[in-house]
Structure formats: C-alpha cells, structure tokens
Specification:
Blueprint lengths: L2 E4 L5 E6 L5 E4 L5 E5 L2 E9 L5 E7 L3 E7 L5 E8 L6 E5 L2 E7 L5 E8 L2 E8 L2 E9 L5 E7 L3 E7 L10 E6 L5 E4 L5 E6 L5 E6 L7 E7 L3 E8 L5 E6 L5 E8 L2 E10 L7 E4 L5 E6 L5 E4 L3
Antiparallel strand pairs: 1-2, 2-3, 3-4, 5-6, 6-7, 7-8, 9-10, 10-11, 11-12, 13-14, 14-15, 15-16, 17-18, 18-19, 19-20, 21-22, 22-23, 23-24, 25-26, 26-27
C-alpha cells in the first residue's frame, strides 16, 4: 500500500513498495530514495517533537524497523521488535516515540524510546488481532484501540509511556477491520472502524476527556480500512474504499460537528487510501488503481 507524507521541508511525498519489496520515498520532483528492502505492509510515519519524520516498517523476517533521515538526506535504519505480525501504531508522547504492535504470541506490546537507540517494552493486552490504533487525548495521554480475536473492540488509557494502562473499556459493536483514531478540533478522541456487517462507524467522546462514548454509522457497505485526517479548518475527513472499488470520502459539516457530507471521489481503486494535510493547507491522498498505477488527488 502507498502512504502519503509531508517531508521535513513541508513538501508532499509518498512511500511505496515495489514488486521486489523495496520501500521507496517518492519526492515531489519525482525522484526516489530507497528506505529499506524486504518491506511488508505500508510504513507508519509520524513527526517527532522536532518535526522530523520517523518511519516504522515491517520486513519479511517479521522484524520491525525504524528509519529516519540523516543530515545528508539518506535514510538511516535500526532494528526494533522481532516476531511482529501486523503494522504498528505510533505516537509521540512529549518527546518520546511510543509504538504498539501485535507479536506472534497474540499480545499487544508497548515500546517506548528512552534515548536514541534505547527502547523499553511491556505487554499490554492478549488475544488481539490486526493493527492497533493509538492517539493522544487532551492531556497528552495515550489511548489505544484494538480488535480482539472475538471481534470486539477495546480501548485503554496509558497515563505515561512507562506506566501500566488502565482497565480496558469494551465497545458494543462487533468489528471486522482495523481501527484508526485521532482527535477532533475541540479535543475529543475519535475512532473509525469497519463493523462486522460491513458498515463504517465513527465513535467519539461525549466531550474531551470523557469516559462516555457515542457512535454513528457513516456508510453502510465498505471494504478495507479507513484513512483519517483533519482539514485545515479543523473538520475531520474520512476515506475508505467500497467493495466495488469506489473511493468514498466524507467530511464534517463543521469542525467537531456533524452531519457528514459524503461523495465518491475516484473509481477502480484496489488499496486502502492514505490521506495527509500538506503544508499548503490542502489535503492530499494516494491510492492504487486497478491498473496497478498509483493515483493521487486533492479531495477538498
């Protein structure tokens, strides 16, 4: 899958893996920079406290690797966790990189960076499947969202990267996709996930920091997993593909407020979309088409 990104200079680029498993960064001028070979799954990209891109990617040997740009513009890499089965969720808590990933023992594990090249780890939750989601709340505390083997969706609060999480909260829906999570314009945590009946649902806190959650159905028949971003004016935007290959998108009526307005913005797509807000204040997406070519556009 392809992942849209904003580089350290604020320019839009994207990452893609070729048929030989080489992960490339495609820069705005069309030139390519090799990141790592043997890549499996899409990379996860965050910007640290100094606004530098940090990239996490799985390789074929079930290892998770971390990559960052050196001063000469070349990608540097370090090996992280072994026995990983899915892509991680990554957040920046204060100045610390924190990631969550499922390993072959079926547990969700939390890793946090104590210093460059030095990481600690702790188990979080058992019997999880798929890729987790993670987001920071208004107090900069980390919340994780995970799917369990029985199809249930759970969230937990992690007060600090090195602290044990609170008791988990179970949501009522049965889900069949991996969640994505974020924070809306007024600070409420939100999540988006495909339900077991094929519907796309959005869950959101009653107010910032609240333990009360509400849920709405955004679409009745979707496939794959959603992408999420905030527009420049603070409205949330969600994208997902449909079983027929349409790229469906919806945007809030106002920041942190419904109703949602939806439309199909492309047809014949075969991968999950990636969505990012550029330095120019415009959203951009990338997705793969039925002909194998990478398509990109500006949805709003």
């Amino acid at each position: 899958a392809e992942v849209a990104a904003v580089d350290d200079a604020g320019r839009l680029s994207y990452f893609t893996t070729d048929g030989d498993g080489v992960l490339w960064q495609v820069r705005p001028d069309g030139t390519r920079a090799q990141v790592i070979d043997g890549a499996v799954g899409p990379p996860v990209i965050v910007h640290d406290a100094d606004h530098h891109a940090q990239l996490f990617v799985r390789r074929v040997e079930h290892m998770l690797w971390h990559a960052w740009l050196a001063g000469d513009g070349a990608w540097q890499i370090e090996r992280l966790a072994e026995g990983v089965t899915d892509d991680p969720a990554v957040v920046v808590a204060g100045r610390a990189l924190v990631y969550f990933v499922r390993r072959s023992d079926g547990w969700l594990w939390r890793y946090w960076q104590r210093a460059p090249g030095a990481w600690s780890m702790a188990p979080v939750s058992e019997a999880v499947v798929g890729r987790p989601a993670a987001a920071l709340d208004v107090h900069d505390e980390v919340y994780t969202f995970v799917r369990k083997a029985d199809g249930s969706l759970w969230t937990q609060r992690h007060p600090r990267p090195d602290a044990a999480p609170d008791l988990a909260h179970k949501f009522p829906e049965a889900v069949d996709g991996d969640p994505v999570a974020g924070r809306d314009a007024i600070g409420k945590l939100t999540y988006f996930v495909r339900r077991a009946d094929g519907a796309l649902i959005s869950g959101f806190q009653h107010q910032p920091g609240s333990a009360v959650w509400h849920r709405v159905v955004l679409a009745d028949d979707v496939a794959g997993d959603p992408a999420l971003a905030l527009a420049a004016d603070g409205r949330q935007v969600c994208m997902i593909r449909t079983p027929g290959g349409d790229l469906w998108s919806a945007i809030q009526d106002a920041p942190a407020t419904g109703p949602w307005h939806d439309r199909v913005i492309a047809r014949g797509v075969t991968s999950d979309p990636s969505l990012v807000l550029g330095a120019d204040g415009r959203l951009a997406y990338v997705v793969r088409g039925a002909d194998g070519a990478i398509a990109h556009g500006r949805p709003y």
